[in-house]
Amino acid sequence: MSTVPKSTVPDADPGEGSPAVAAVLDDLAVLAVRRLSAQGDLSLTAAATLSYLDRNGPERLSVLASRQAVTQPSMTQLVRRLEREGLVDRSADDLDGRAVRVAVTDAGRALLAERRRLRRERLTELLGTLSPGELRDLTRIAGEFLPLLRRLLQSEAGK
After folding, report:
1. From CA 43, how far away is CA 65, in angstroms rounded?
2. Is the sign of the CA dihedral 33, 34, 35, 39 positive or negative?
3. For 70, how many CA atoms within 13 A lie in the half-sphere containing its CB?
4. pTM of the complete model
5. How far apart are CA 54 and CA 20, in angstroms?
6. 1 has pLDDT over 50
7. Alpha helices (runs of H) in the chain, residue ranges in sequence order
């Protein structure tokens, strides 16, 4: 039978454990981004913008800037680059012709799908290095962890 290594998160009341959990989640995010991002891949902001457009449909440039916590000129520059690469289309807003709406293209969707496929391929390779017991433990932990993390991040997104 496999044993799960002792957690780096101490047993403590929620108020005392929050900084330790935050540190673990931060490490997890950094490791995942570094290990699973391909060299020469899209920037995190570009990937997040494409993903947002894919999930939510066309959006005003000003909303994209706000969502990604960047300035409007920075988002304009990013959208221009993505448009040159054929990943998004820009058009005038139907309600306000001065405003720009951005939509992901089929090429943008294909790129997102390929990025997901490559990430999952890399993860599958990494998971193949675990023993069956370790994989079983990780599967159980992930099944408990993911719903909590989703709920946490969705509540943050709603603010």
Report:
1. 15
2. positive
3. 17
4. 0.73
5. 34
6. no
7. 14-36, 44-56, 61-68, 72-84, 106-127, 132-157
